[in-house]
Amino acid sequence: MMTETFIKKKMFLAGKWVSRDKEMNVHNPHDNSIIATVPAANEDDVLFAIEEAKDGQTIAAAIPVHERMAIIHRAADWISENKEIYAKVIALEGSKTIREARKEVRRCVETLRISAEEARRIYGETIQFDQMPGSENRVGYYYRFPVGIITAITPFNDPLNLVAHKIGPAIAAGNAIIVKPAPTTPLSALLLAEAFDRAGLPPKVLSIITGFTNDMGEALITHPAIRMISFTGGLATGEAIMKKAGLKKMSMELGSNSPVIVLKDADLELAVESSVSGAFWAAGQNCLGVQRIYAQEEIYDEFVDRFVTLTKQYRVGDKLSEETDMGPMISENEAKRVENWVTEAVQKGATLLCGGIRNGAYYEPTVLINVPANCKIAKDEVFGPVVSIFKVADLDTAIREANQVPFGLQAGIFTREVDKAFSAIYKLEVGGVMINDSSDYRIDAMPFGGVKGSGIGREGIAFALQEMTEPKVVCFRLLT
Predict the structure, then answer these.
(1) How do residues 52-62 score in pLDDT, each as one tens digit?
(2) Is pLDDT above 50 for 223?
(3) d(CA 158, CA 105)
(4) Which of 174, 242, 363, 377 keeps 20 to 30 A from 146, CA to CA?
């Protein structure tokens, strides 16, 4: 991989770009080389951001809707005009190949443009108060107002677009927002702040706080001025946040172990291509990634053969190469964790068909069959390039097995039979069912979130706007 110029970045604190004596290194997972440093914020920085955001929420709420829209569109324009810079940063600091990173940049632009358009659709409704006897002389309505200050905590796997999914609707709704990006991938979030700074977002509305979690204290979670926490990450961390936060609104997009069902009437070529992509996109570090596949016994052998054949064709290596299909995991430690999970599964009886080889932070695309239920990889979120394929007799068996995990984000099913598709829709315990697509299909306008251990609330811009606003009822008692 080509050598990159080492850079120092400032963080965006209440509308100002600031440095700190203590810094944090940002590494390229390819070889663990340092590509940048960013300030390591402390607890005082967090408290300052919150105090400034108290003014910021008033400023944001007072911005007319047309100007909110204009600011967000200008930020999207800037990103679009500099899309290759943004894509290269995503690829360098994270796991994505340059082709995957370009797609994320395009999605970020779309996310922001949707946010701008949804700002005009924050509606209320009139209420028929005379439905209640004695209230014939009352009329009224409700409207939605901003929650105030939002803390957003974002993961490494989509370091630009998932931050946009917090900032875009927050600004569209008239809130102030403080973002803590993943320590491993802060550069993309800072580039997003640069876009909003150039777009004319008033000071104090947005902060991007970089650094080590342990240095920042817990004010971003516990401070009473924070009225909402929007978190994307693991189940254990999400549960810990909810226990500490107190009385606040919560949006929790947590883990998954996504299933795909392939029935005997499926288009096998489509099912294989979609599921391989869904399993190994971003080195499998995707909450929607295909982790379990249930193939009906009549087509099981053919499906497995085709899946393994296509998997073996995946090109793993240089993230900046146009030819590369999959890059490294986010760190060598994460690759070692996945290696240990696969080893455990094999020791307990699973059969390794391909992959299972680690080289530093790189872990080859891996396919397992005969995976027993009593190993981590069967129940937990692997968050790596590993897929397990199971043979099932029929749809009911597949659905029953698919539901036997503590998660429920999205699922996919491949079938030509509408009645079977609808049976899966109604019976799968998930927040979304993709028909003739893998579990990882998503557009940024749709409601996104899950059930069980996969979270609380929904993202997707229109739905995030509902989470980031509150209804206020107004009633007039008429005096004539």
Answers:
(1) 999 999 999 99
(2) yes
(3) 10
(4) 242
**Tens digits of per-residue pLDDT, 267-310?**
999 999 999 999 999 999 999 999 999 999 999 999 999 999 99
Q: What distance lies between CA 325 and its chain's CA centroid? A: 21
51 in active site: no
* Residues 455, 238 contacting (CB under 8 angstroms): yes
Structure confidence at residue 371 as a pLDDT band (50, 70, 90): very high
Could you tell me if 432 and 411 are in contact, meaning their C-beta atoms sit under 8 angstroms apart?
yes
Residue spans of beta strands (DSSP E) within 95-205: 125-127, 138-146, 149-153, 176-180
Mean pLDDT across 332-358:
98
Read off the amino acid at residue 247.
Answer: L
Decide if 475 is catalytic: no
Contact 240, 262 (CB under 8 A): no
Q: Can you say how many angstroms the Cα of residue 54 is from the centroid of all Cα atoms in its chain? A: 27
Closest CA to 418 of 396, 436, 437: 436
Query: Pick the catalytic residue: 52, 100, 104, 253?
Result: 253
Cα gap 324→97, rounded to integer Å: 7
User: pTM of the predicted model, to two decimals?
Assistant: 0.95
The kind and range of the H/E element at 450 are none
Catalytic residue among 287, 332, 334, 339: 287
Contact 388, 348 (CB under 8 A): no
